[in-house]
Amino acid sequence: MRDRLRTWLGAHPDFEQEARRRAKKALIFGGVAFVILAITGAASFALIWLTAVALALYVPPWGLLRYGRWVVVLGVLALAALYPFYQANLFEIPIFGGFPSVDTGVTMLIFIMMALGLNIVVGYAGLLDLGYVAFYAMGAYTAAWFASQHFSGKNLHLGAVGINPDSPGIHISIWIVLFIAAIFTAMVGVIIGFPTLRLRGDYLAIVTLGFGEIMPQIARNGDHLFGHNLTNGPQGINPIDPPGFGSGLHNAVGLPNDYLTFNARFLGTTISNVQLFFWTALVLVLFTVFCSVRLRDSRLGRAWIAIREDETAAAAMGVPLMRTKTWAYAAGAFFGGIAGAYYASFKSGTFPDDFFFNISIFILCMVILGGMGNIWGVILGGGFLAYLNQEGLGNIGGWLNSHFSGQSESPDKWFTIWHADIDVPLYQYGIFGVILVLVMLFKPEGLIPSSRRKAEFREGVSDEPLYDVQQ
Amino acid sequence: MSDILVAEGVEKRFGGLIAVNDVDFTIPERSIVSLIGPNGAGKTTFFNMLTGVYKPTAGRIVFDGHDVTAKPPHVITQRGIGRTFQNIRLFQNMTALENTLVGMHCRLSGGIVRSVLRTPGLKREERDAHKRAAELLDFSGLRGSEEEFARNLSYGDQRRLEVARALATQPKLLLLDEPTAGMNPQETADFTGFVSKLRDEEKLTILLIEHDMRVVMGISDRVTVLDYGEKIAQGTPQEVQHDDRVIEAYLGSGALAG
Known about the structure:
The complex is a heterodimer. Chain A has a two-stranded parallel sheet. In chain A, a hairpin with a 2-residue loop joins strand 3 and strand 4 (269-271). Chain A is 62% helix and 3% strand. Chain A is mainly alpha-helical. The radius of gyration of chain A is 24 Å and the shape is globular. Chain B is α/β, with parallel strands linked by helices. Chain B has two domains: 1-80 and 171-258, Rossmann fold, CATH 3.40.50.300; 94-168, no CATH class. Chain B contains eleven helices and ten strands. Chain B has a six-stranded mixed sheet with strand order 6-7-8-3-9-10, sandwiched between helices. The A-B interface holds A 290-291, 294-295, 298-303, 305-306, 309-310, 312-321, 327, 330-331, 452, 455-456, 459, 461-462, 466-468, 471 and B 39-40, 44-45, 48, 51-53, 72-75, 77-78, 83, 85-87, 89-94, 98, 101-103, 105-108, 110-112, 115-116, 118, 126, 129, 149, 151, 165-166, 168-169.
């Protein structure tokens, strides 16, 4: 019976042994976490449910079963897709407070998408890009140009929703704008890549750093660019049109006409614009993951890894260096552009202050923290850092202040360490820096490394430009 | 036999140093030609000019009817010159199979859009490529090591994988840079047999840089000797062995007097 079951499942011979190993690990770590959460007052059905789901996904080594890896993928996907429905019923985690709101979830997903895009450049092809924010900005401004009143001299309406039909400017449906932004940004990637990708390593990093600085300056000063008002300067461009499917599709199949005015109740939860933005972002992330996986396992993906490992040898094996690197840049830019355009539509505006250098580093941190080259890792890193930035640090600050601040009147107060409340989010880059240093010290390959990258960090890569000069 | 590669007056200077000076050199089709010379004679520099890693300061290189002087390495590889490296330069953190697949890069056509869509044509191409890569590994004596990371292979196997990867580029001319360095006599003998097989069965032309004179004299159709960047002799192994300038270059000027 047992053997037949095993054959039917296509199980690997190590299945049971691995399951036991994981069960032990889960029992130790999960048990500790569960006890802590239960003691701190988070004991609830939600905690038990979540623990059960996490155990079901982790303990059986699904990867060793036929079709098994889909179980984890679909499980995580279902958890994410249903998040708006159970978010309100979740428990509080000590120090971090509640689970992120759906609104924060949208931002997390958008940053995950950007991190996945940068992962193609940094993780796959090994090109250190410190100016990724340029692509984000490009995408956001593309959305601003094609879906707002900015060019009020021109009138073009194409499937736009949620605006007065008479409103001036170019208004194109956000879905088309996302596509335009992707193509446009990929082209900018090629243009930026052309002069810079001849360089290697540190030199490339410095030049991309330059481009990352140039972009926000153009955005800031672009209100008089050769006599044209391209970016509306420091005020930025707003409002930007919301996404939506228009009244035709709304009446036919019930898709939301316009995200901003949508309102309905489903499974006891109000479905409004935030939920819609969340699911759309989830679809975009899925699209990015899909493309990332396909590219990684393709001829191009192999060439990227080969270039990362040893440029000279890759060229000698017939890999065109410039073209292959430029493709990596274009692919990374493509997703950065979509993410930027979508974020602009979500926030209904784009401002030069959103595109400073620190965002590039922030996205790079996500890739490094999670594990360069590993999609799960980058998703984890991107989600976690975006959460910290949006909500987490504020919550942690609130907890610290209510327990240790002299101003605190809270019954939770333990003792006074500082007299006035401190503003923890103010120290965000210091905190991210510390996280990065800790990761580099203790787990340089990231939280969930790809096996290849792990080896590279341990053994190093052998990329020396001119090898036989050493003779 | 016609010449598959013709180099005329090739010269390479690094600042004031003349690494290769006015070398004329030809390789007849389907032959094994060896390039020998004392350390620092400019053999590898010459190699690197043939494969596009360095641009010659002067001179002209014609391969298979096409001028390949100072062309980028990937273009030259595509024309049909495959190479191995003196100090093994495999993609250490890729498997043997992946290394071979990278070698096929310029013979495959899958672009970015087709890779994402994974069209039936692309699937077929990838399946064929995997099959061919496995066959090449088998042919090179690496059966069973397909999924090993290159860095985990033994030294001899890494050398073999370098050749398999170079063969994957479907070369007409294969350049081997000291392929038997560090091999024991048995491995060297096996390898010599393998190189002869490449010429006889795969109809390849082979250019060999080699220090082991037993290998050179055993399999070469022709030997060219470089010293201080200049060609000092060329001919059959027997002719070269008895050439005065060669003996002088290897053993010093006193050797002839004695």
